[in-house]
Amino acid sequence: MGQAHHGRSSLVHHNFLVRALACCQTARAMTAHKPGDPTTLNRLYGRSKGKPLRAGQQGLVDTLLPRIAMPAEGPVTSLALFGDDRPLHFEIGFGGGEHMAARADMLPDHGFIGAEPFLNGVAQALTHVDGDGGKHPPLGNVRIHHGDALEILQRIPDGTLSFLYLLHPDPWPKARHAKRRMMNDGPVDLFAAKLKPGAELRFGTDHAVYLRHALMVMRRHTHQFEWLCEQPSDFQNRPAGWPETRYEVKARTVYGHEVWYFRYRRRNGES
Fold first, then answer.
1. Residues 204, 216: Cα–Cα separation, whole Å
2. In what order do the strands lie in the sheet with 195-205?
3. Shortest CA distance to 101 belongs to which of 121, 69, 126?
4. pLDDT (tens digit, 0 to 9) for every residue of the chain, 271 residues total?
5. Is 170 among the residues known to form the active site?
6. What is the maximal distance between C-alpha atoms in the chain?
7. Domain at 2-266, CATH class
8. pLDDT on residue 174
9. Torsion, Cα of 101, 264, 179, 194 (10° steps)
10. What's the rounded Cα separation, in Å, for the pair 167 and 69?
11. What are the DSSP calls for the chain, one per residue?
């Protein structure tokens, strides 16, 4: 019975992979090769500021952000940030900070680093860190970088991170902009370097072009990452411990998008 179930599960997984690889071939045809990626472009794209901040948000930017901002230089370690040795999580482009804050509340003995170039997103994250207007105690295990995530990631010693999150990044859907996507070979190599063996990379998207592009990229990194997927439901349903965000709800309910969730485990000893 157990062997039969395993056989059916393996067949389902195999059939899914065949379909996924076909998508990758489509993505390759759709996406012209462009040299470079975010690790070599050395610049940020997209907005850095939106509508004016409310008075309370501006107050948090002026007072709370300097207290929990990343140091300007030096190695980024849990000892330097939190004064002890604890698991470190890093979120690239945290948007409004809902996922980061929820995970930090869920795991108070872990340390969380979030990077976001959009000032309005930073201000919203600070609201969560500060306790959402008294709804919960302030979060003392979060540090924020208002700027380029790669600047911080490069300062983290290799083999340090326990989790790395890339959730709903800008898809840059035009082929000529594919090199701007964070899910590219250079960043993925950097992710692999900074994650400890057995650590987890989580990637989420509601954009079909980015989905195909990411699958194609990760196919080239199977020596570094094991895809934690046995059946389609593993990436179609939000896993336990993966907090939902307003953006995700809006993508599904307002725009009618599917949302896909990917978990990859860092393999041992492969650079």
1. 15
2. 142-145, 111-115, 88-92, 161-167, 195-205, 260-266, 225-227
3. 126
4. 444 444 444 444 445 544 555 554 544 444 445 568 777 766 555 555 668 999 999 999 999 999 999 999 999 999 999 999 999 999 999 999 999 999 999 999 999 999 999 999 999 999 999 999 889 999 999 999 999 999 999 999 999 999 999 999 988 678 787 888 999 999 999 999 999 999 999 999 999 999 999 999 999 999 999 999 999 999 999 999 999 998 899 999 999 999 999 999 999 977 7
5. yes
6. 63
7. alpha beta
8. 81
9. 70
10. 21
11. -HHHHHHHHHHHHHHHHHHHHHHHHHHHHHS---S--HHHH----S-S--SPPPHHHHHHHHHHHHHHBPPSSS---HHHHHSS---EEEEES-TTSHHHHHHHHH-TTSEEEEE-S-HHHHHHHHHHHTTTTTTSPPPSSEEEESS-HHHHHTTSPTT-EEEEEEES-----SGGGGGG-SSSHHHHHHHHHHEEEEEEEEEEE--HHHHHHHHHHHHTTTTTEEE--SSTHHHHSPPTT----HHHHHHHHTS----EEEEEEEPSS--
58: amino acid identity, one letter: Q
Nearest 5°: CA angle at 115, between 105 and 173? Answer: 115
* Tokens 């899914």 found at: 16
Token pair recorded at residue 44:
């940020």
The per-residue DSSP string of 185-245 comes to HHHHHHHHHHEEEEEEEEEEE--HHHHHHHHHHHHTTTTTEEE--SSTHHHHSPPTT----
| Amino acid, res. 105 | D
| Active-site residue (options: 148, 170, 189, 234) | 170
Half-sphere exposure at residue 149, Cβ-oriented, CA atoms within 13 angstroms? 24
